[in-house]
Amino acid sequence: MKKRINLLLCFSTLLIAVSCGKKEGASAGIPDVGNPQPPVVVVPSPYKPNTTYYGANKYVTFKVGDANSPIILASPHDGTINPSSMPIRDHKDAVTVRDTYLTDLTEEISAALFTKTGVRPHVVFNDVARARMEPNRSLEEAYHKSEAANALWREYHAFLKGARDMVQANVGKGLFLDMHGHGHTKKRVEVGYTVSITNLNASDAVLNDKASTSSIFHLGKTSSYTFSQLIRGDYAFGTLLENEGVSAVPSKQDPRPNSDDYFNGGYCTATYGSRGGGEVSAIQLETHGTDFRMTAADRKVSGGKIADAIIKYMKAHYGLFLDK
Ligand SMILES: [Zn+2]
């Protein structure tokens, strides 16, 4: 019981620290929407393997995988619930488009990974519309319109951090894949490591110096491959996707985004990867729609291919799943 009280105190302190972080917090300019503030949900930690946890109202979900899972999957932008307590984010810089069917695609990847490896990954997803709550920006740049949206954001991030901490503690290294969908012209997966487009377009010699800017910095420090090989060599994630028949950039087959539309990774990839330390790296996968995720049949096939690429990546760079 005493432990639980301590946990409550710690969490409350953390919340205060977060909300006081910048400019009196993002809540300073939020209009009163006439709704009572939701109770702070204290997320139980440590999480039990193979257990599903929900935030308040079941708006966010954490399906805890096996204790020995090195993989975390997340789908932040496919929510469809529109709570009246979270008004539409109408700031001019607020992106509100939904990543259609990404949660279903993420579930297909999770199921395929379990079938192929016997290990259930950790899965986190958000069911509230992006127009009302934005998990993939800092709280300051989410432009939420209510404290209820801020509270939901904190729950989502408590789950992601919980998953990352479990992998770090139980396995000592791992990979977080943040799943998204783009509407760009080229039908290919955009693999994001938070490396700038300028650096991705540069020579291998220039790129080799940029590992510290990436969400796979830990691999950059420990791998026998050069950093440019990790981005576009034989065992880069994009190359392994191409080998499964999925077009991907950057990869050996398609090494640079050049002047094409390309997403290099957002807030969650930057926050829960290894750019700031630790042994859990992160990759953002921005998937195309047509022929990839718009039908249930496509999602099953695509989910299996992504799972195969993940397994080959874990073998090549982590020494895990070697017998699969
Ligand atoms: Zn997205």
Question: How is the topology of this model organized?
Answer:
Layout: H1 2-19, E1 52-54, E2 60-63, E3 71-75, H2 102-117, E4 122-126, H3 147-170, E5 174-181, E6 189-192, H4 197-201, H5 204-207, H6 217-222, H7 227-232, H8 237-243, E7 248-249, H9 267-272, E8 280-287, H10 296-318
Parallel strand pairs: 3-4, 3-5, 5-8, 6-7
Antiparallel strand pairs: 1-2, 2-4, 6-8
Helix pairs in contact: 2-10, 8-10
Bound molecules: zinc ion.
Zinc ion binds near residues 77, 99 and 180.
How would you describe what is shown here?
This protein has 324 residues and is an alpha/beta fold. The protein has one domain: Aminopeptidase. Helix content is 35%, strand content 12%. An eight-stranded mixed β-sheet has the order 1-2-4-3-5-8-6-7, sandwiched between helices. It is globular, with a radius of gyration of 19 Å. Bound molecules: zinc ion (ZN). Residues 77, 99, 180 line the site of zinc ion (ZN).
